[in-house]
Write a structure and sequence with these properties.
It is a single chain. By secondary structure, this protein is α/β, with parallel strands linked by helices. It has two domains: 156 residues, Rossmann fold (3-Layer(aba) Sandwich), CATH 3.40.50.300; 223 residues, Rossmann fold. It contains 17 helices and 20 strands. It has a six-stranded mixed β-sheet with strand order 6-7-8-3-9-10, sandwiched between helices. Helix 3 packs across helix 4, helix 12 packs parallel to helix 14 and helix 13 packs antiparallel against helix 14. The protein is globular, with a radius of gyration of 23 Å. The termini are far apart. Bound molecules: adenosine-5'-triphosphate. GO terms for molecular function: ATP binding; ATP hydrolysis activity. It comes from Conexibacter woesei (strain DSM 14684 / CCUG 47730 / CIP 108061 / JCM 11494 / NBRC 100937 / ID131577).
Amino acid sequence: MTERIALRTENLTKRYGGVVALAGVDVSIRPGEVTALLGENGAGKSTFVACCSGARAPDDGAIHLDGVEQRFRSPHAAAAAGVAVVHQEPQMLEDQTVAQNVNVAMLAGGGRQVLSRTRVEALAGDQLASLGLAHALDPAQPIRRLSGAQRQLVEIARALVIEPKVLFLDEPNASLGDEETELLFGVVGRLRSRGVAVVLISHRLRDVYRIAERVVIMRDGSKVADGSVDEYPIDAAIGLMGGRPRRRDAAAVPAAACESPRRAEPVPEPVLELRGISGRGFSDVDLVIRPGEIVGMAGLVGAGRTEIAHGVIGAAPLRGGEVLVEGVPRRLRSPGDAIRHGIVYVAEDRKDAVFYDKSIAFNVRASLLGPRRVGSGRPRERAVGRLVATLAGRLSVKAPSLEADAASLSGGNQQKLLFARAVSVEPKLLILDEPTHGVDIGTRHEIHGLIRQLAADGMAVWVISSELDEILDLATRIVVVRLGRIETEVTAGHDPIPILAAAMGAATADQGTS
Ligand SMILES: Nc1ncnc2c1ncn2[C@@H]1O[C@H](COP(=O)(O)OP(=O)(O)OP(=O)(O)O)[C@@H](O)[C@H]1O
């Protein structure tokens, strides 16, 4: 009996100028299975998805869907044939509701236009319920009020209205907390049992290995391995992806950086002190961050962590309380104002921060022209050189040249660019919201190493992350935000897991009833 194959590529090839993004890739994806597509940043995963889903035309090779060769002229044509994609950065109608956004997808998929708002909400509600998402999303909520995780779930609901044969999920869990990842995997499990071929791209390998049956491993545009997860366990996959030795973070940093900050020395003056600040989505928040500390902010997605950071840097209004920067009360009016006071925030959503139509070099220089450099006129070439060296070396950003558009960088490489750009401003306080979102495992170690080194050199760092592992790995002190308030605080060295689990678990129960 011949095995059923949902999607098969043969010699799939794609070049961007001199860059070979796909070098003759042969892959078979089976129905009713979850296949993980793995590879470091820039390996060619997104390009593979783009070619299979009509977003890019391959230069060579063939794509077969259920045994029939296809030449998709557009994503719409691919969707009509049964190929759906959930993208890393969902594009949605921001002012419309969840229901309207799902409805638009239904219309695009050939559904009938529905004019009544209650009917639109009921249809979207049915769609969400069939995916087990009825409790996670309210069809009447406007998109702009949703967290990154909730938007991902809406995007998945939209992709599924066409009842695809093949579903590509490109980094769907990059910004999801543990709870939301479970929700997502619940949806994936349902799709698998309906016979959908699911292709999952994710750098969170431990999550991936919980759900995938098969792996396809890519490196530099080529497939280097393909088989069951038993044949290629995590460590083997990591080796195949990079061929780069996996360095322990601690080895990359001076030993002092791994200790709690400056225990024996006098306690330095806080860089930032929040006294009972309130704003939309949070209230009565007290927090002190001193030089050399890495404060990890944990909590469920939607708990209010990003909102607190936005309130501090002036991206959203504060309703009350006081912000002190180096002991002086300040009301920061905008992120630019925050930079002038030595506070740089790196957003979770890179769409807002990358100048896509400008060159990589422009993006790098943009920060060096920032307020702290104004006095020196032109950005100092040495500083540019240092930054570029960091990008190319420690963060291994793959780019054809510095003059290429930032849009030509893979998603993970854009994230690295933003990190390096923020660091180059030499802030007193660096606020990182999901700093390794979409970044491969080797680079994640490098970024963590750099964060520790910066703290060891005296920078204060505030890390917001949905990954408890990341917080436990990095932070010298951990605060947990729950329902917009700081719920609990623990110092590294104590066993924080029971405390964190209690705070986060309690939050789930409360949120469910409110
Ligand atoms: N529009 C483009 N123009 C030029 N080069 C591009 C373009 N899109 C992608 N590339 C290059 O093709 C290669 C593969 O990129 P791709 O986005 O497919 O990688 P990826 O494996 O999805 O990475 P990530 O994990 O960071 O998302 C990279 O070297 C990238 O810089």
